[in-house]
Amino acid sequence: MEGQDAVISVNLKMETVIQHAKEKDVHKGEAEGTLYRKGDSTFLKYTEVIEGAGSVNNVIKMNHEGIVILRSGSVAMRQKFLIGQTTQGMYDTPYGQLWMETTTHQMNFRWNQQSKEGDLLLKYGLVLQGEDTGNYSIKINFQEAKS
Fold it and tell me: What CA–CA distances, in Å, run from 16 to 36, 66, 74, 75, 99?
């Protein structure tokens, strides 16, 4: 992204893998969104439709300190991810508010200016309402949308 506030339309491919005990759950999806820089942070914005819950607006803020995921819509969440640290947050669902705690194991963000493509990898352990819900791996690949 050349300019400080240049906004690039991107196509996203997302994959979330949840590993809990011996069970493995995989969720895949695609979305259209935007990628832009503001200050020393890069933002990825997109809307996803969650089966049975409706649409959710997502903003992922990435910088040298860590990653913050903001979700609003049929579910709401604000969670900060700091490598090797445990952070707390809240998760609002149509069924009520849940307390969450994440321990970040790995995170990586890459953007290739020449090919106009990049990816985000985030791996963390999640405790929801005091119960260990497993290890999560979120992979998002994105590339500039061809107009």
Answer: 23, 19, 19, 17, 21
